[in-house]
Amino acid sequence: MRMVDLIEKKRDGHELTKEEIHHIIKGYTAGDIPDYQMSALTMAIYFQGMTDQERAELTMAMVHSGDTIDLGEIKGIKVDKHSTGGVGDTTTLVLGPLVAAVGVPVAKMSGRGLGHTGGTIDKLESVPGFHVEIENKQFIDLVNKNKLAVIGQSGNLTPADKNLYALRDVTATVNSIPLIASSIMSKKIAAGANAIVLDVKTGAGAFMKDLDDSKELAKAMVDIGNLVGRRTMAIISDMSQPLGYAIGNALEVKEAIDTLSGKGPKDLEELCITLGSYMVLLAEKANSLEEARTMLVEVMNNGKALETLKTFLVAQGGDGTVVDQPEKLPEARFKIELQAQEDGYVSEIIADSVGTAAMLLGAGRATKESQIDLAVGLVLNKKVGDSVKTGDSLVTIHSNRENVDDVKNKLFSSISISSNAVKAPELIYATVE
Ligand code: URA
Ligand code: CA
């Protein structure tokens, strides 16, 4: 098989076979196919697209390019959730304990990564003592015992995706639905999921800013999952403004604690219950979405979800008392209010630009080497649709430096106030299954 012939085949709009796709991914991972040929192929895919079958084969070829996690010793159907990322997205911290509390095994592999705030692991590490450096065997035992454990990303998961993503990043081919969908799905499948629930974000703070593109991506991922034998469902949710109120590491842990006790922001609670219901359904712990929802609301109200969080934190070395005394989480030295300068209604809170403001405080990493400050971040006091009076606090800035003029300027340019009443945006735009 000559790579040049395969590039030509795709360039001319023909379908690559299973053998061809596996040959390409194997060759590229081994270093036998050079970057310049792979770049030409990704550009051909960008313009010609891929059939459902090609997408499924590409996904599985990437799954088998490195290690795969065997969760076979965990009892029950392992359901994983993936979010395409947003600003202040606290869902993972809430969903883990929430669905574990009704008996769904959650074996979460998570990372740090770059972004406005840290990843799930950074957030959890704001709980004193908590760590994810555990052996695979302990990880599996903990999931069997407590239904929930989190482990750091294995070094050699989907190396083909890692290389390909880096290549796409510098060849203007990131933005291709078949390539994004297979990239995301390969990582979930390699991490051992039997079933997958996807939260595809849409709006200013999302990877996909346009609703139609988000729907297409969701459909592409659901089709791949179902073709390769992993039941998959997706919802499209709003990321025009940040989710919940908190954007920051320790601040989001506190928000997760509030939400698990039924006292969190209503948008975050609703999104978690919706995603959680799909997870419970796919794990076959309920017969209908309504039944799943009732179960989740019950564990939120009776304290079981919070208790599950505590057990999970303690099992991985964390101080479980933070659950009842969140003031034990890292706290920033200064709390500075951003005051509204006019009366009216909040009409816009541009999510990605608020995320950048959090990053200016040190809540996220700009480069892999950046140090993260777990204590700092933002708490929104108003959301789109809320009425405000001059002098009301729009945002509380949690900072470890006294002068935050740069952060205030960024926030003022991200938040708009209108004199006319504004409706809050929809939270969930569509379900794809
Ligand atoms: N996120 C991924 O993991 N892969 C992509 O290709 C794009 C976003
Ligand atoms: Ca949040």
From TrEMBL:
Essential cofactor(s): K(+)
Catalytic activity entry: thymidine + phosphate = 2-deoxy-alpha-D-ribose 1-phosphate + thymine; uridine + phosphate = alpha-D-ribose 1-phosphate + uracil; 2'-deoxyuridine + phosphate = 2-deoxy-alpha-D-ribose 1-phosphate + uracil
EC class name: transferase
GO MF term set: pyrimidine-nucleoside phosphorylase activity
Residues annotated as domain Pyrimidine nucleoside phosphorylase C-terminal: 345-418
Pfam families hit by this protein: Glycos_trans_3N (PF02885), Glycos_transf_3 (PF00591), PYNP_C (PF07831)
EC number annotated for this UniProt entry: 2.4.2.2
Keyword Amino-acid biosynthesis appears in the UniProt entry: no
Top-level taxon of origin: Bacteria
Keywords carried by this UniProt record: Glycosyltransferase, Transferase
Quaternary state and interactors: Homodimer.
PANTHER family membership: THYMIDINE PHOSPHORYLASE
Its biological purpose: Catalyzes phosphorolysis of the pyrimidine nucleosides uridine, thymidine and 2'-deoxyuridine with the formation of the corresponding pyrimidine base and ribose-1-phosphate.
Stored NCBIfam families: PRK05820.1, PRK06078.1, Y_phosphoryl
Family: Belongs to the thymidine/pyrimidine-nucleoside phosphorylase family.
Protein name: Pyrimidine-nucleoside phosphorylase
Native organism: Metabacillus rhizolycopersici
